[in-house]
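User: I'm putting together a small comparison set for a docking exercise, and I want a reference complex before I start. The sequence is below, and the ligand is zinc ion. Could you produce the 3D structure with the ligand included, as structure tokens?
Assistant: Of course. I'll restate your input first, then give the structure tokens for the complex.
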Amino acid sequence: MLKSQLFRGDTRLQAAADSNPGHIVPGDRGEHVKKIQLALNQLDNAGLNPDGIYGQKTANAVLAYKQKRGIINHTYQNEADNIVGIMTMKALDEELPPAGDDGGGEVAFVGMSASGVCEVEGAKKGSGPQQTQQPSAKTLIAIPLLEPKVRIVIAAATFKLNSADQFVKSNEKLVIPTGPFQANARSAVKLLIDVFSLDKHKNPRPGFENIRRVFFNMNVALNRSFETDPLIAPLLFVPNTLVSQEKVAFAYTSAGGAFLKSSKTKLKGLGVPADRIYICDALMKENELFQISTMVHELAHFVSGQPILISHDHGVPKGGQFLKGAKDKLDKITPEAKLRSPEHYAFFAMIAGFKRLDTD
Ligand SMILES: [Zn+2]
């Protein structure tokens, strides 16, 4: 099946990719020829007028494309020709940007409610078009002030992980290092044990790698949103504009939303793009440490799925709010579940970074 954005779904091109009678040859005309011209312009700077007519210029560009890549069907020829057959279609399709897996559709969302319950939600029966409101001025102002602080705690968490790295060994129980000059490593390993129970893993290394990848992905998401060019900077934290969500949530997003390639996929029942994190005005009434922690919690959901999905399934408590006295409850889950719990990532980052935060 053709998989590029440009070619996918074109039956004439698909025929050319599948069988010899489907060859596209000089003299052909049509939308499918136009797409080949566009592909050659994009991949080889062929400079063709995309008129859908397979004339001499197009034929020359096809020949040049095939020569450059050594596309020759040795069963019947010794040199490249100017027709578009199975091998050429395959090469063009592979070089072109793939069609995203974001062809629309809906995904469930996860949201932290004011009561501290973070649930997976979907369309409610009869949920029609959502009533919207202007983003609150308070949230609009607060987000750019909070985002650098999220950045600080993520950086602090990354520093901790780097400090612990050499002490987390494959197939060896994790123990707190005791040597001299290892204060950083000691506190880092202790934090991994306190928050993620990494000492309970027979082999702590894969769990450690998971944690590190999650924080790495959070950094990537934050740095992308840091781009100043609005054309390439995707949105990350945005104010909520749905009246219904304002009543029930502090913040919400989709698990894995960071990996969507466009804004076509919507949150189920809400109709808003799934590729960002929504911050509600209700969160603005909370203290700043809790606001930052909630943003990291949502960020953990958002960047998850590669490699592990961070959700509230499979024994991961729906309650967040480590910072609000839920520690006992959150400590009780299995060490494996802790690796899939957004609140544990948030807590790790908050403990790692709170001394660097200038909060009131
Ligand atoms: Zn959650």
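The chain is about 40% helix and 5% strand. The first helix runs from residue 11 to 18.
User: Thanks, that's exactly what I needed.
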